[in-house]
């Protein structure tokens, strides 16, 4: 499996175009270079290639370190915004008491004190660290895999669909790891009188509902997270591409690492706003579903109505916008620190340029 993915990575159009072509020779003379090598870029040099990467693009080590970056990216950021997430969940499940973000913070602080704003931090950190491992690690895997299936030219022409398919596939598996901790988090944050300790929450859920108690919210979780992640990755990738093409006054390779991370943060925030909007109704259902025993996603949706499904949107836009920007910043920062390959936005293959030129003649 790993060998197959490795071979896929080497032929993938999203691999760095700034690779040096090596000509091999034997006793009978020169061999023809591999058709997958980008000969036109052989004379080019980049800061990354000069400094050297710590691993090869698409290798097992590359995927593992990307997964580690995902753990830090999602685990740290989601834990940092637990107070905002707590208020958002309470607005969703009890809008009569927690009318808006300001009253939500005020009532929570008055009833539980400053410490109460951190309720649910443990399942948040564990759950979203596991999710980040799958989200970012598998995204890299599926992007390379699907890109190779499409071929170099189609991968470029259909790159938005490629981003959408790769991110959806990655999130499907990531949510399986997230679901149990998400169920624990929502109960701790929204059910009055519930223990605030994860080690006590797990056996209570197991005793009352069994394993189903941890996974009864998996379907609405997929409905929330898969569209969110598809928007998160596709919008980020295309926004990053547009920023370097139309906004940033110089090419990516001419920017310093710090400047590149600033562009990453900006693209991440823009993507985050759209992520919050497309995934909010499902997020409300997840919060309410894990609060009400024996209910289904359809029951919750009917009970809340269209207006109720959009409760808590403003704090979620603030939270997800900041969260997504920070996640991409951390993830890209980890890649820089660990010297992982960071291919620039994809460019049109030379073969496709020639075909278009022939058509225009």
UniProtKB/TrEMBL annotation:
Signal peptide span: none
Membrane topology, record value: Multi-pass membrane protein
Gene Ontology, cellular component aspect: mitochondrial inner membrane
Subcellular location: Mitochondrion inner membrane
Cross-referenced SUPFAM superfamilies: Mitochondrial carrier (SSF103506)
Keywords (A to Z) from UniProt: Membrane, Mitochondrion, Mitochondrion inner membrane, Repeat, Transit peptide, Transmembrane, Transmembrane helix, Transport
Keyword Transmembrane helix assigned: yes
Stored InterPro entries: MCP, MCP_dom_sf, MCP_transmembrane, SLC25A3/Pic2/Mir1-like
GO BP annotation list: mitochondrial phosphate ion transmembrane transport
Transmembrane residue ranges: 261-279, 313-331
GO molecular function annotation: phosphate transmembrane transporter activity
Solcar repeat feature ranges: 61-145, 158-242, 259-337
Keyword set includes Transmembrane: yes
Family: Belongs to the mitochondrial carrier (TC 2.A.29) family.
Function: Transport of phosphate groups from the cytosol to the mitochondrial matrix.
Name by which UniProt lists this protein: Phosphate carrier protein, mitochondrial
Organism per entry: Darwinula stevensoni
């Amino acid at each position: 499996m790993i060998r197959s993915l490795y071979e896929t990575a080497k032929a993938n159009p999203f691999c760095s175009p700034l690779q040096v072509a090596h000509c091999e020779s034997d006793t009978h003379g020169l061999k023809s270079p591999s058709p997958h090598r980008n000969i036109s870029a052989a004379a080019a040099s980049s800061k990354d290639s000069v400094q050297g990467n710590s691993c090869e693009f698409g290798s097992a080590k590359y995927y593992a370190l990307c997964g580690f970056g995902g753990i830090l990216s999602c685990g740290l950021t989601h834990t940092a915004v637990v107070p905002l997430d707590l208020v958002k969940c309470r607005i969703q499940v009890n809008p009569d008491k927690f009318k808006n973000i300001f009253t939500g913070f005020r009532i929570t602080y008055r009833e539980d004190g400053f410490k109460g704003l951190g309720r649910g931090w443990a399942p948040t950190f564990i759950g979203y660290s596991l999710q980040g491992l799958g989200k970012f690690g598998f995204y890299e895997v599926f992007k390379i895999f699907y890109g190779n299936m499409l071929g170099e030219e189609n991968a470029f022409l259909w790159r938005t669909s490629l981003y959408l398919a790769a991110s959806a596939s990655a999130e499907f598996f990531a949510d399986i790891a997230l679901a149990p901790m998400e169920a624990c988090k929502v109960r701790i944050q929204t059910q009055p009188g519930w223990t605030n300790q994860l080690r006590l929450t797990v056996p209570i859920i197991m005793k009352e509902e069994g394993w189903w108690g941890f996974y009864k919210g998996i379907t609405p979780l997929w409905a929330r997270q898969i569209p969110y992640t598809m928007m998160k990755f596709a919008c980020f990738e295309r926004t990053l591409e547009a920023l370097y093409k139309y906004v940033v006054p110089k090419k990516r390779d001419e920017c310093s690492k710090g400047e590149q991370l600033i562009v990453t943060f900006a693209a991440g925030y823009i993507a985050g706003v759209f992520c919050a909007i497309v995934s909010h109704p499902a997020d409300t259902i997840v919060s309410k579903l894990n609060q009400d025993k024996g209910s289904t996603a359809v029951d919750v949706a009917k009970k809340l109505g269209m207006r109720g499904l959009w409760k808590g949107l403003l704090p979620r836009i603030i939270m997800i916008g900041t969260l997504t920007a920070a996640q991409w910043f951390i993830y890209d920062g980890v890649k820089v620190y660990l010297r992982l390959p960071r291919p620039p936005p994809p460019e049109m293959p030379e073969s496709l340029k020639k075909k278009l030129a022939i058509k225009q003649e």
